[in-house]
Write a structure and sequence with these properties.
38% of the residues lie in helices and 25% in strands. By secondary structure, it is of the alpha/beta class. It starts with a strand and ends with a helix.
Length: 237
């Protein structure tokens, strides 16, 4: 389970998150939806211990990420697919990850097959990878330890339609196996295709949340999101 409890994050005079609370249950894909700058990445960084909340708490598997035993083996995270050493090959990056987590290096081959990177592609340096290949590699790194919770920030960026279809199937399979999946995106259509539950955030606040069927009743989620993105664009202009 992933849980945010009244999380507020203030940078000097900027309130990046404002009393954010929601839960990602095991077996559920939760879409964390909002325009760029809404606070999604800040929340995810807090969840995996890269930033600290001003108030409130974020826990995964019942504890703060930094208090988990070997957290990388229990929680998979992809926050920035471009943050990979350009001079190392894909296989080297996964092998180092496996060794760091105390996993057998045989897991690397399993993960390469899982994310659809060929042996030839895995032998190339990351500097020659497309963004889509980097996304696949990053997702593979997140899956090395058979995680019980998965945190992905905009994982569909750079994926072609076939890759996006593959990712949806992968996330669905992981959730069906009992994994808690938190998926951020600024694209409503992408979230609707895979999520069981949606949390809509704007200007650091949770505006609405609920199951897909629940949110489709009454006022259109699409209309709400269009108004939010339009308001965000006007504020940035």
């Amino acid at each position: 389970m992933i849980e945010f409890r009244h999380v507020t994050k203030i940078y000097k005079t900027v309130r990046a998150l404002d009393d954010v609370s929601f839960t990602v249950e095991p077996g559920c894909v939760t879409g964390f939806l909002g325009p760029n700058g809404a606070g999604k990445s800040t929340a995810m960084r807090i969840l995996v211990g890269l930033s600290h909340p001003t108030t409130g708490s974020a826990t995964v598997l019942g504890r703060p990420y930094t208090e988990l035993d070997n957290p990388g083996s229990q929680v998979g995270a992809l926050l920035d697919a471009t943050a990979q050493h350009p001079g190392r090959t894909g296989r080297e990056i996964l092998t180092l990850g496996a060794l760091t987590l105390g996993l057998p290096t045989a897991r690397v081959g399993e993960v390469l097959d899982l994310v659809g990177l060929t042996r030839r592609e895995a032998g190339r340096t990351v500097s020659g990878y497309s963004l889509g290949m980097r996304q696949r590699l990053g997702i593979g790194h997140a899956l090395l330890g058979h995680p019980k919770a998965l945190v992905l920030d905009e994982p569909a960026n750079g994926l072609d339609p076939q890759g996006t279809h593959w990712m949806r199937g992968l996330l669905r399979d992981l959730a069906d196996s009992g994994c808690s999946v938190l998926l951020s995106s600024h694209q409503l259509h992408e979230v609707e295709q895979v999520a069981d539950h949606i949390v809509l955030i704007g200007r650091g606040r949770v505006l609405t949340q609920g199951g897909i069927d629940e949110l489709s009743q009454g006022r259109s989620l699409e209309q709400t999101y269009l108004e939010l993105t339009a308001d965000t664009a006007r504020s940035a202009a």
